[in-house]
Write a structure and sequence with these properties.
The protein has 315 residues and is α/β, with parallel strands linked by helices. It has a single domain, classed as Aldolase class I (TIM Barrel). It is built from ten helices and 16 strands. The strands form four sheets. The chain has an eight-stranded parallel β-sheet with strand order 3-16-15-10-9-8-7-4. Strands 5-6-14-11 form a four-stranded antiparallel β-sheet, with no helix packed on it. The structure holds 3,4-dihydroxybenzoic acid. 3,4-dihydroxybenzoic acid binds next to loops.
Length: 315
């Protein structure tokens, strides 16, 4: 049921979303069919799988596993190459009345700069989410854990980019790291940050088989779902506190129902992405969670997100 008196609308990076809920980059957002399904759904935006300069098949299977508590993946950036996501932008924009964001995750800074320059020439790309936190390419560290490298990347990227730019961050676990990273981001023309990517290099075990559950990297992979919600909430909360007010914070991590989305917005999220649960449930998660969130808002007497956004009480 959709309660039209209770608005889930949000705006960030100059984009207007009819719903604050949309897909995380990762599950079911690689092919044209995937992206069309998101377009047709209640999702507030369409975000692509992280793309690279060239098409990639990704890591060997099995490379994704989930249980009741969450997921582990080591997909290895399977995607159709940045050109594909640029070429379909005009069609996506004409077919669906919602922002179209491309996630970019080049294997080198040079590749990122090239893709960003190209995508900047495409007026049908609403915004770019630059992924500085992919944990799954053997031999490639997560850029966002190397603060000096982040300064270098943002210096070069903001020279070539004029589009709304977001960065996808990994989770941080120490207050000094939150402070250092926020101070860096605050120096650059960044419109939003997405907190958080999966917790990198976790290990899930099948006790019966006494074996790992995914093949790449000896079973190590990025953890999502319930396992990561407290970490995701903490990252949203801290970055909201520390970042410039004009930088939006997009939440991602452990959202499977309306309560989870409500909690992220209480922490200050301007929008909420759904990853593991979207993988499980498909596009119906966007309308279901929207209805659940509206129900919570109705019971609390809230009509719009700003009635409670960022208003988490602390003692
Ligand atoms: C992949 C996983 C990630 O967490 C990410 O940010 C980008 C890519 C992957 O394995 O495909």
């Amino acid at each position: 049921m959709n309660d039209t008196n209770i608005s889930l609308a949000t705006a960030f990076a100059g984009l207007e979303l009819h719903s604050c809920l949309y897909n995380a980059s990762g599950p079911w957002c690689t092919t044209r069919e995937d992206l069309d399904s998101i377009g047709k759904s209640s999702s507030g935006a369409i975000l692509t799988k992280s793309c690279t300069l060239e098409e990639r098949a990704g890591n060997p299977s099995p490379r994704y596993y989930e249980n009741q508590l969450g997921s582990i993946n080591s997909m290895g950036l399977p995607n159709k190459g940045y050109k594909f996501y640029g070429e379909i932008a005009a069609d996506i924009q004409s077919d669906f009345d919602k922002p179209y964001l491309i996630s970019v995750s080049g294997l080198s800074l040079k590749n990122n700069l090239y893709m960003l320059a190209e995508l900047n020439g495409n007026s049908n790309v609403s915004a770019i989410e630059l992924n500085l936190s992919c944990p799954n390419v053997p031999g490639k560290p997560q850029t966002a854990y190397d603060f000096k490298q982040v300064v270098h990347v943002l210096t070069e990227v903001t020279k070539v980019n004029a589009k709304p730019l977001g960065i996808k961050l990994p989770p941080y676990f120490d207050i000094i790291h939150f402070e250092e990273m926020a101070a860096i981001i605050n120096e650059f023309e960044v419109s939003f940050v997405t907190c958080v990517n999966s917790i990198g290099n976790g290990l899930v075990i099948d006790v019966e088989k006494e074996a790992v559950v995914i093949r790449p990297k000896g079973g190590f992979g990025g953890i999502g779902g319930d396992y990561i919600k407290p970490t995701a909430l903490a990252n949203v909360r801290k970055f909201r506190e520390l970042l410039r007010k004009d930088i939006a914070v997009i939440a991602c991590g452990g959202v499977k129902n309306g309560v989870d989305a409500f909690e992220h917005i209480l922490c200050g999220a301007d929008a909420v992405q759904i990853g593991t649960q979207y993988h499980r449930e498909g596009t119906s998660c966007f309308s279901r969670i929207a209805a659940e969130l509206q129900d919570i808002m109705k019971n609390k007497g809230y009509a719009k997100l700003s009635d409670f956004k960022g208003k988490l009480i602390q003692y």
